[in-house]
Each structure stands twice: as C-alpha cells, then as structure tokens.
C-alpha cells in the first residue's frame, strides 16, 4: 500500500518535473544550443531536497529525471528484450535536452557522494565509495565539456560547462588532499564564474556571485595546507564559519580544528580561576576549555542568528560532556574509598574544575538567551507581519510578549546560579 502511494505521488509530480526539463534548456534557430547550467542545477537542488540537506532525495530525483529525458528524446539504452548502450556523441545531438544527460548524471553521482559523506563519519570504508562517486561525477562533467566545445553551443554554455567541470574536479582533488591541483582547478572555476557574473544582468548574476563565495573558502583552505604547516586556529575558525553547509570543506575543517585543539591541549596543563590554579589532566576537558575560549570569536563571525544558535548549542553539549567526565572521575575516586592527603587534594581540584566548567556553561547559556532576547525584540517590533516575526525568531509561530518575559525570568535564574558558583 505504501509503494502504491509513493508511485502515485511520483506520477503527480511528473508533469511538473517534465516542464522543468523544457524550461531549463533553450535552442537557437539552427545551430547553437544553450544550457544555463548553474541556474538549472541550483533550481533543481533547492526544490528537491538540498534546501534541507537531503542528498538521497535529490539523487533519486536525478535518476527519475534521467529516465524522463531519455524517454522523451528516444535515447534509451534498453528495449523489452535486450540492453544496448548508446553513446552520446556530437552527431547524435539534435536537441538542447541532450546536454542535460551528462549534467544530470554528474549531479546524481555528486549527490550520492555527499550522501556517503555523512555515513563516512561512522563507517570509514564509505570514504572509498565516496571518492569513486566523485570521480564518476568528474567523468560526466568532462563529457559535458567535450560536447560543448564542438561548436554546437553558445559561448556562455561553453564557459559554464568548463567552470562546472573544474569545480567538480576540484572536489575530487580536495577529498584526495591533492592541494596544489585542487587550488588550480578551484581558481579556474572561480575566475570563470567571476567573468560570467560581471557579464550577466543583475537578476541572474546573484547565483554566480554566490558560487564564487562558495569556492573562495576552498581555495583559502588549499592555500593554508600548502603553507608552512603552522596551525592558526583563528584562521581555521574563520574558514569553518565561511564554509557554511559545504560538506566536503566543513568535514575537513572540523577534523583539522579538532587535531589543532588536541595539539594545543597537550601544552595546557592547568587553569587559573578565582585566584586559584589547578591542573587539568583529562585531554577531553582540556580540548573543551580551549574551545570555550575560542567560541566568542567564532560566534561573532557567524553570518546569521541560526548559525550562532547552532554554535551555542554545540558548545553547551560539549560542556555537558566535559562535566560528565569530571563527575565520573569523582565517582570513581569515591568508590575507591582511599583516604589520603594526595587523594583529598585531587578530589578538591576536580570539584574546583567542575565548578569552573559549570560557570562556563552558565555564562554561555546567558549569552545564548540574550541573543534570543534580542531576536525576540526585533520580531516584536514588526507586529503587522506575523510570518516575519516567526521566521526571525527561528520559530514556527509568531513571537508574543509573554515569550520575552519568560526568557528574562530564565535569564535571572541562570544569572543567580552563575553568581552562586563564584
């Protein structure tokens, strides 16, 4: 029954998707074909899953779209009785929609690679499959360039295909950590997109400017890895914030940031607070303390309210983990039951460290709630537009004055708790 409902839903969506295929390609009178590659893929991505990071849904959409295009062009591989692979060559092309075949194939392989990126965090073997899919996407992108360079496409299509292929190749080199090659092809892609942005009307150029902004952090990260190897945490944090939702770059930066913090944590042996100095022996606790020191700068560099809230939530979760580590160690010491001067001093230091971590958590909670309060104030000023208030506050409903009052009550309680730890 579930399969029937899915099939029905796909059938309902199919006419709309077929109209997309016709709208995204334009054919000139006789010779030259045109395909607006970047607008085409950005529109498809935003409508079919990537707005919410659902790469599986986008990959499935690409597969369905490929079948529709092949069927409408009469360019299918199989009949009822046998399979016969048909190669796409310049001589075959008689319609602009033929150019969509390698493009959608590349998008499907890329979407699968991004889907595997999330699984690779827990299953290391998935990374090999991820690289294969990225290489496959590069092959399809190169095939698109080869078709477009045969004087059957206009100048804009040729440039877009070249930029798209360079960007896809850069993703492969980036994942393989071939930094110089990645830097070269990313720079090529950025240069082409910059030229296209300068030549196109204002209503279209925004997409190309956004693409340039997406590529720039990748170039900076490649240049960072080609440098002297010294770890600049501040530079890495800036790159991580500018990376946004780019999964390949964000994943690499998270790994490097974690390694850099671990290296610096090895040098941090103690902390000073309230006129007292205590040793910090647990490595995970040291890493958290370093991260908390860097968090203010990282939050300031975030672009919007949602990003700042995500950073606060992540930091508070890490703080909770650090507190639990200390509590577990105190519990272990209590179960041993050894009464000695050395053990009592160690317990006292751990309790002091727990108070310090608790103070950090309460302080960051206050900062987070103050940020929410400012957002509520802005939302309440535009009382006429309920949708605007709900979107700005990051909630699914309109903000009310009671919400702000309740938030300030919580702030007072948290502030009192923080004062008690001093």
What does this structure look like?
The chain has helices spanning 2-24, 37-47, 55-73, 100-120, 126-148, 155-175, 179-199, 202-225, 233-243, 247-267, 283-300, 305-336, 341-381, 386-392, 401-421, and strands at residues 25-27, 33-35, 270-273, 276-279. Strands 1-2 form a two-stranded antiparallel sheet. It has a two-stranded antiparallel ribbon with strand order 3-4. The protein has 422 residues and is mainly alpha-helical. It is elongated. The longest helix is centred in the C-terminal third of the chain and has 41 residues, at 341-381. Mean pLDDT is 80; it is low at 1-12. Helix content is 74%, strand content 3%. It contains 15 helices and 4 strands. α7 (179-199) packs antiparallel against α8 (202-225) and α12 runs antiparallel to α13 (341-381).
